[in-house]
Amino acid sequence: MRRTTENTQADDAAAAAGDPSARRGHTLSRALQDWGAALRRRFRAGELGSLPVVLVLATVWIVFQSLNGNFLSPRNLSNLSVDIVGTGLIAVGIVFVLLLGELDLSVGSISGLAAAVFAVLNVHHGAPEWLALILAVLAGTAAGAVQGYSCAKTRVPAFVLTLAGLLTWNGLMLAVLGTSGTVNLDENGLVADLTNYYFTHDAVAYCLAALCAGAVFTISYLDRRRRTAADMPHRSLRHIALRAGAIAVVAFVSAYLLNRFQGLPLALLIFLVVVAGLDILLRHTHYGRQVYALGGGVEAARRASLNVTGIRTAVLAASGTMAAIGGLFLASRITSVSQTSGSGVLLLNAIAAAVIGGTSLFGGRGTTWSAVLGMLVIQSISSGMAITDTPTAVQLVITGGVLFAAVVIDALSRRSQEAHGRA
Amino acid sequence: MPAPPLLALRGVCKRFGAVEVLKDVDLEIHAGQVVALLGDNGAGKSTLVKVISGVAPAERGVIEWEGRAVHIRRPHDARDLGIATVYQDLALCLNLDVVGNLFLGREIRRYGFLDEMAMESRTIDLLGRLTRAVPELRAPVVSLSSGQRQTVAIARSLLGDPRVLLLDEPTAALGFEQTTEVLDLVDTLRDRGMGVLLISHNLGDVKALADRAAVLRLGRNNGFFNVNTASQEQIIASVTGATENVPRRGTSYEARW
Ligand SMILES: Nc1ncnc2c1ncn2[C@@H]1O[C@H](COP(=O)(O)OP(=O)(O)OP(=O)(O)O)[C@@H](O)[C@H]1O
Ligand SMILES: [Mg+2]
């Protein structure tokens, strides 16, 4: 079983033989074969990752496009990409909590509270927007940290404590809003710009697409060079190029479509930067490693001298922070804050998005990208239903069905992993 | 005056709720020695290991490190002293891969990020010392067999170059060849001056490897033996309780040791 990394140096030697044109076709088919083999291995081991959700998303898009030709129009896709951001940011926080194997029910209320804090400070008390914004986000962080600390100290499951939080923060929000009812935000202000602003120049989207594919390629290439120098198992150049190429295709097609409408939305850019940054934090730093470890076994983490209380507090604080930021984006979308901000299906959608995107309910498995993919599925269904004039009842049933399927896949892949281990 | 033991326990008591699991337990581990800890199921061996490793700190009693009284209240304290542990239940994070488990809590960093390559190459070194069939390094530990998991747990304990190693039934799930390799490794470590506490139900292994044996019975010391001179029957009688020779502290202790 030793050194069964998907690719080794031998591949390159094999690819180097033969004439150039035949080699190219050969290279591609070999790469696809490698990929297929890796996929089969992961399938057996119960690590499907984001494959199921990508398939669901493709299905949803194909179905709605065939029902209504406007579904995949630049205009609709551009709106979709802005609509996913508010709830998507909240779902990123949910991913953190799910990684611990816990659930945070207070994110909806916290998002409403943050929006209310911002609106009242800025509109009623005349505080500058940047200050109100920072205080609103910090309110979310503080609310989350309080919950996290008490959860770690009392060892009550987080979903119960955050249920108390849901009520408390909602009450606090009503108190902050006072008698004002609905507060309208400045239409040309900073927060309104969060979802209003588009980079109209075509070059911005294309440059960022190139930058992103280039960065992925460079980082994997440098890693490969370091590993070759140390004679360690490494990915083949082909694998790296194929991966960077796939990312480049997705990025450039998106950039092209967005540029056909109004350009790259600022909201989408912020969302993707946050998701990518937090993904790096979770998977490539020792802070993130501790979160995964705690999700994989509290006792094991404790015996490895990890600070369990600190990690729990930090994770729920992160979730509160993301909820507050998401709440500001949601307020920005409608440029107003009211007593119903943060209520309704928001909480359920955020949790559903994280789970549909492939983050496990059992803790320890998932990435922040599942928030993006899951939100795309949920928002595509709702936008497609709106375009095709389907009643809300059907929309809820279909979203519920997708969530059900996601949970079943999660449970099955966990079972298959355990069976794999016992064999 | 002879050098003080690397690690010494004097009159250690531990209770879980109303149950007193360890009563006035004494134990000494010298550098360059393997001490076997014997006892029936439920005698309190694993609890004693958890006391030393800071997972379940003692209520009463003194723990001395090189003759100096120390407080071990958290796993962190034990690790800082140089005590490494292989727990009976292994205490691995099932969702992390082999490399992640080995380095949990002391990851190698490069520019602030995890240096996966350095950790991977250290892992290959460490596992290579224990087994010829190194498991897939990037698979989550949940997909490994129990023997492979045990190998990972042992490799993990060797990572920080500890001075005292606590092994709670380290070979229980291992095959014949792997067991030999682990026992050979313990032998090498002893020669390098490490102090080892080995819990095992296999008297053959204990006879072959250990220098001394301490017997626990119902949470109390029930005899100390020099493995080279004591007979197997004597040790078994002490484990099963046929001979109740509870040593009074301080008096006949050294003689029996
Ligand atoms: N967390 C706990 N809470 C309550 N009682 C416990 C706990 N851990 C252990 N015990 C009790 O302490 C006693 C000693 O357990 P311990 O695990 O130390 O035995 P052991 O000698 O390691 O046995 P074995 O050979 O089966 O591993 C048992 O009676 C057990 O029921
Ligand atoms: Mg035990």
Automatic annotation (TrEMBL), chain A:
Location(s) in or outside the cell: Cell membrane
Entry keyword annotation includes Cytoplasm: no
Record bears the keyword Transmembrane helix: yes
Pfam families reported for this sequence: BPD_transp_2
Protein name: Xylose transport system permease protein XylH
Function: Part of the binding-protein-dependent transport system for D-xylose. Probably responsible for the translocation of the substrate across the membrane.
Key words of the record: Cell inner membrane, Cell membrane, Membrane, Sugar transport, Transmembrane, Transmembrane helix, Transport
Transmembrane segments: 48-68, 80-100, 107-124, 130-149, 156-177, 197-219, 240-258, 264-282, 311-331, 343-362, 369-387, 393-412
Record's bilayer topology term: Multi-pass membrane protein
Residue ranges, annotated region (Disordered): 1-24
